[in-house]
Records
---
Amino acid sequence: DLPTVIKAAAKLGHIPEMAFVIVGEAQALDRVAEYCQMYGASNVKLLPFQPREKLPEMLAAADVGLVVQKENVIAFNMPSKIPLLLASGCAIVASVPATGTAAKAVSNSGGGVVVHPENPDALAAEIEQLYRHPEKTAALAAKGRQYAIENYAFEQALNSYESLFSSLAK
């Protein structure tokens, strides 16, 4: 839901230290550039796709990671970006349906906040709140990182699969 992100970015244009960075394919970035012009969002930086091995570094460079979905997204849709953001020690603002898997993952991790989807005012307000309270952002990031270590680490995943297979074998 890029228009919502771009509209939120435009609403936060009064904060010169804040930049929204969007990484994507050239064709998609052209469309995003049009949205930026349309909504007056001069604080959006567009970058081409980077090699996969740069992804953790890119995510960790952000103070806040965004996860956005439309209102009508199927409830069990879980963006792979959520565990990556948590593992990178990045606080999350999730503009996702409140009853969906994405909202539950962010809430359960303690690593972010959930706002109503397709609402640029709510998204901008929450991002500004985190900007104004860096201690809250740092606390969310730390909780999210710890949650990722405890729940998404390779060893943890192996233990979960082993437990699952063991229960199925019985």
Note: The chain has eight helices and five strands.
---
Amino acid sequence: MTTIVLIHGGWHGGWCWKKLVPLLRLRGHDVHAPTLTGLGERAHLLSPEISLSTHVQDIVALLTYEDLREVMLVGHSYGGMVMTRVAEAVPHRLTQLVYLDAFVPQDGQALADLADPAFYAGLEARAKAEGEGWRVPPPPLARWGITEESDLNWMRDRVGPHPLKTFKEPVHLYDQVAATLPRTFIYCTDKPAGDSLAPLAKRLREEAGWSYRELPAGHDVMVTAPQDVAAMLDEICQAAGHALGAESGATPRRN
């Protein structure tokens, strides 16, 4: 069994993992899918003061109060920014990081530095026009690869505004233990032009210290292809278990 904490992306909430969580639990994993402050069922807490640090504290508090250890963090989209900072704060509680079509910041970078410039400019413009300068309305669901009518109907009432401040706060990398955590980048290949993550995928495919995988799906793959995501995450867990068993000289147990 692996303890897995799923960190959702912008405009989403813990609800977006609804299809994936039971599939992982059927495979024997202990799964947590928290919602970040101001989003999902916590939308009543949305405010201009919410920052990336707020969301980092959400996850650190979950790990601390639930006393979760040997955790595999899975971050989707903006969740990659949160996950990277969480790893800096509590690396001793983690075993590996999985970036599910997620942003991977280098030292000093904010999401605003990583997003496609035209796409990000559009987000700021919409926040100014529709969100008093700080609430970013969600992009069209089609951009995330949502095309099935049932999924569209399910998500329309659940996605909501995201605090702009979280996109502007940079990540600073300093912890040597965090830097040694195993990392996997899963790139979703079925995306529109101007995909912010394409340059990142190209770099990480060749970069030392990274495991690189692909899924032929749109950005919200946990909604459109949850079986594929569950199988890949389970495979990553199994591979980590075998590696640990090999290092210790023990025979790893399959879940």
Note: The chain has eleven helices and eight strands.
---
Amino acid sequence: MANHQNAKIQKFALNVLSLCKKYESRIRRVVFLSTACCYPKSRQALNYKEDGSVAIKYVKEGDVYPADPESGYGLAKLQGEQLCEKLLDHDVYHIIRLHNLYGPKMTCDNSSQVIAALIRKVLMINKRNGSGVLSVWGCGTQYRDFLFI
């Protein structure tokens, strides 16, 4: 299923960007919504100091290369970014790499991200063990940024 979704993302990006190229005299701006999943997993991992605090590693645009996305989804989005670079003038396109999105139309299945996965755990708690215990991974000092859509 995931490979099929990734192929759809690639095809959609190619079709839209090809049309932008075809009608470039009428196109003023293209915003390509990408993902932080483009970055290699090693660049996204948290490093903990001896005192348990997090050693923050900020990522920059260039950290995406050498390309080693964490998933096929990240690869599909990275290829969309590359299509922007190949097909469009540099001053026309803008790439925004989003991460940890949530909102009313998010899915709460087994492939969900952080917010949806936590909501799913809460909803399923009584069905699983009936004890009312919520199990959350980590030590409780983690932090992340979230973007409501």
Note: The CA atoms of residues 108 and 116 lie 5 Å apart.
---
Amino acid sequence: MPESTTHKQIPLTCYIRTLNEAARIGAVIQEVQKLGAEIIVIDSNSTDATRQIAEDAGATVIVKDWAGQGLQKRYGEDAASHDWVLDLDADEIISEALHQQISELFKDGEPQPAIYSLKLVTVPPFPKGAIWSDCNVAWRNKLYPKSLIRMPAHAVWDQFKVPKEIKPIKLSGALEHYSFPNIAYQMGKMNSYSSDSARESKLKSKGLLQLRIVFGFPIYFAKKLLLAKMYKGGIYGFACAAVIALSRWLKDVKMYEMHLAKNGRNEL
């Protein structure tokens, strides 16, 4: 019998997008089970054991060809039995503190319509056991009723724009983000993201992009290192800040390439 049946059920659906996440999906589902939420996995044709592990853990698995970041989340929303949904990635694990806060919200059934922002904290691969609880912290609007707002039907953007009249409520419990196993993986992930972002964003002017290519990288790096406090991660935090800054800079370069291709020029 799936473990989730031993927990009190609440009117909440958690949807999770997957592609070859056999190494991580079990731990993600295990923590969601403690909430008593419905769990739906939207799998993009994994070739490893992702689907079997998810099903064995008690999740409903739906196979859906990859349509894009926001579009895939839309599919998860549509498949949810409940109005309230929790958006998780396959590398995000609910901490005990966050579990308690969400459980409290649903202790008497559905809460009043609202958007809840979760504290996303990075769990770096090195040193083992480290959690960047005070650096590179991001807030993501991940707990919401789909009758109030929907994820964008977009190939790249997968975060909705909050209406001005709604102020998201922050939950302080951490959502632990195991986003990369090593720096090589992070480099590949950032390179792919910069390509998608450059392609789907409004093309900046050629002159502005030239300025950003020459002067932008140190600014992007300083923002991550100092404003996002990634210096608190030590030398490894310094290196990761550089990789993230490089991704932002590569978006500028790739947009500049679009101008060159449009004009039929091959030189930078």
Note: The longest strand covers residues 169-177.
